[in-house]
Amino acid sequence: MKSEKLKIKNEIWNIIYFDEISSTQKYLLNNLNKFNLPVCVWSEFQTDGIGSRGNKWLGERGNLFFSFAIKNNFDVPLQSFSIFFAYIMKKNLEKYNIKLLMKWPNDLYTKNLKKVCGVLTNLKKNVLVVGIGLNTKKSPLKNFDGLDLKIKNDKILKSFLENVYKYSWKDIIEEYKKEFDKTKSLFDIYGDLQNDGSLKIKNEKVYSKR
């Protein structure tokens, strides 16, 4: 385990790195009381990563896996934090000329419609714990993909953390709604994206699952 401090605006982030870990999300959830916030735990290899809806996140060694915990001082609807942070990761990767599509509510895909990134959020009292798996190198699964990036994982991670407080929910949802209308048919998603991040299908609202 290695640790360092990273100052972003007025916040001092505790950054903790493991060569290998079962799950950054599980580790952080189980050890929240040991760290000052904000804190980020990351690794380039997970043995028991968590995906959304109870699935596992499988990734090759060398990819980027991280979870961070911050106080919930955001104006984001509770059910839409995964949308918020997934889109921030998308915007962050665009700085490196990496163009991805976002599938509602929490996944990033290549133009070939293969998944490269997933976001999972938990709320414990007033603390947000956000987990992100990003296949910066390659994927072991056929329906997933890797970006084969030459950029170091720690650089991508730190640039993402620098963007965490940069955007408001209004910024993100207004931009994402435009993309959603253009891409929803690619993912067989029907309905209209609402300002709170839910989908309106006829008279029914569908919310994202954290």
Automatic annotation (TrEMBL):
Signal peptide feature range: none
Assigned EC number: 6.3.4.15
MF term (GO), any: biotin--[biotin carboxyl-carrier protein] ligase activity
BPL/LPL catalytic domain span: 6-188
Domain of life: Bacteria
Gene3D superfamilies noted in UniProt: Bira Bifunctional Protein, Domain 2
SUPFAM superfamilies, A to Z: Class II aaRS and biotin synthetases
Record-annotated membrane-spanning stretches: none
UniProt cross-references to InterPro entries, sorted A to Z: aa-tRNA-synth_II/BPL/LPL, Biotin_CoA_COase_ligase, BPL_LPL_catalytic
Protein name according to UniProt: BirA family transcriptional regulator, biotin operon repressor/biotin-[acetyl-CoA-carboxylase] ligase
